[in-house]
Amino acid sequence: METYKVLIIFFIAIFTPTSSNSNVFGGHCSKQDEDVDACLLKSFNNLIDHLKTGAPELDIEQSDSILIDELSIALGGGPDGYKATFKDINASGVNDVTITNVRSDLDTYQFQVTLAIPHISTTARYRSSGILLLVRASGGGDYWGEYDNVKAKVYFRGEPYERKGKTYLKLKQLKLDFSVKDIKMGVENLQNSNSVLQAALNLFINTNAQELLKEMKPQLKKDLAEKMSRFLDRILERIPYDDLIEDDNK
């Protein structure tokens, strides 16, 4: 009988959102604290550590990767301009993320967080058309990429609302940007190709890695912003803002 009671309590604790999830943040931050951003930095990292192993109470599964359906780049114009499309992109290593800085305006519910990820590995299916390096480079194959020292800045703004006596935030805006210090990437198993062309392509890709990333960035930023907005919406809907911020003047 006692075992049965313990199991019931366990499942209630896991699957039912409680009136306070402050353990997720490690405590509250005071709005009146002059160093509130340092407190938020610690709280947000506590939340990330909690999410890394999965959080059923927030409907979040453990995952070390991000999936992106498709993105394209274009180099040069005209009918022979080089175009490449990457599909089924899998980026792993994103779980090893740390928030390194937080800036907030609590009166307007605005936050800017700086994220750091040491290393991200990507794979994708690759297809290209057009001329590159004076050679027609049409065909397909496998793409791989290794991205070191990834940094991102995420800005988001919320709007408060009341539910069951608690204050929650609804996400109203989110923007992000990112940079990568070191990049290695290439293609392999190319169809309709040979080892000489593959070697030439990989030399070109690595020599111009930052420029190629710049071409990918607009689509990447849009896709990542959409995914992060859905992710943050899910968290804000389930965790009261009151569990993060205390207003001592109330």
Sequence-ordered SSE layout with sheet pairings:
Layout: H1 2-15, H2 22-25, E1 29-30, H3 36-52, E2 65-75, E3 82-92, E4 98-105, E5 110-129, E6 131-132, E7 135-136, E8 139-163, E9 166-188, H4 195-207, H5 209-238, E10 245-246
Parallel strand pairs: 1-10
Antiparallel strand pairs: 2-3, 3-5, 4-5, 5-8, 6-7, 8-9
Q: What does this entry look like structurally?
A:
The structure is a single chain. By secondary structure, the protein is α+β, with helices and mostly antiparallel strands. It has helices at residues 2-15, 22-25, 36-52, 195-207, 209-238; strands at residues 29-30, 65-75, 82-92, 98-105, 110-129, 131-132, 135-136, 139-163, 166-188, 245-246. 31% of the residues lie in helices and 42% in strands. Strands 2, 3, 4, 5, 8 and 9 form a six-stranded antiparallel sheet that branches. Strands 1-10 form a two-stranded parallel sheet. Mean pLDDT is 83; it is low at 1-22.
Helix content: 25-40%
Number of strands: 10
- Strand percentage, roughly? 35-45%
Compute the CA-based radius of gyration.
Answer: 23 Å
In brief, what are we looking at here?
This protein is of the alpha+beta class and 250 residues long. The chain has helices spanning 2-15, 22-25, 36-52, 195-207, 209-238, and strands spanning 29-30, 65-75, 82-92, 98-105, 110-129, 131-132, 135-136, 139-163, 166-188, 245-246.
